[in-house]
Amino acid sequence: MTAPQYPTSASTTTTAPPLAAPYYGAPFMEAVKRFFKKYATFSGRASRSEYWWWVLASVIITLVLEIPIWTGMVTTTDANGVTSTAPGPLAVIGFILIGVWSLAIIVPTLALTVRRLHDVNLSGWMILLGLVPFVGGIIVLIMTLLGPNPQGQRFDRPTGSAYGA
Predict the structure, then answer these.
(1) 44 phi and psi angles, rounded to 5 deg
(2) What would the pLDDT profile of 52-66 be if each residue is shown by its tens digit?
(3) Counting Cβ atoms within 10 Å, is residue 18 exposed (0-12), middle (13-18) or buried (19+)?
(4) Where are the domains of the chain?
(5) CA end-to-end span of the chain
(6) CA 7 from centroid of its chain's CA atoms
């Protein structure tokens, strides 16, 4: 393959690698663009920078979308002095926005996580460990923190338009 397969200290190129290759040291905006360009691509690999820049962007967007929920909650007190909180119209809009956002990013986030696991030379099916109560999410987190493994190249299968060919 002609794409860079593994980061090297001598690598000083400023151009982005093709979509089929992981982008080690990806800048923030490039990582977000690649996330959406590879919307449902479960093959290939994703670098740590691609993964964690997207996690940061997703957290920021989610926090911004939660502002209407925080500000739209209505607190009422009845005649007995019992206080209750209910969602107001603004909070309902916030819940709808969060729901649409969550549905829009669930498949690409799963795909990105699978590609990140591939870069560590782990099967994408390891993402299912996240379903294990209490420790599953921690295990997947640790696996996404691991550095790249050159043997992860076995997951590279550049084919078709999904890779900009």
Answers:
(1) 90, -165
(2) 999 999 999 999 999
(3) middle
(4) 28-112
(5) 13
(6) 21
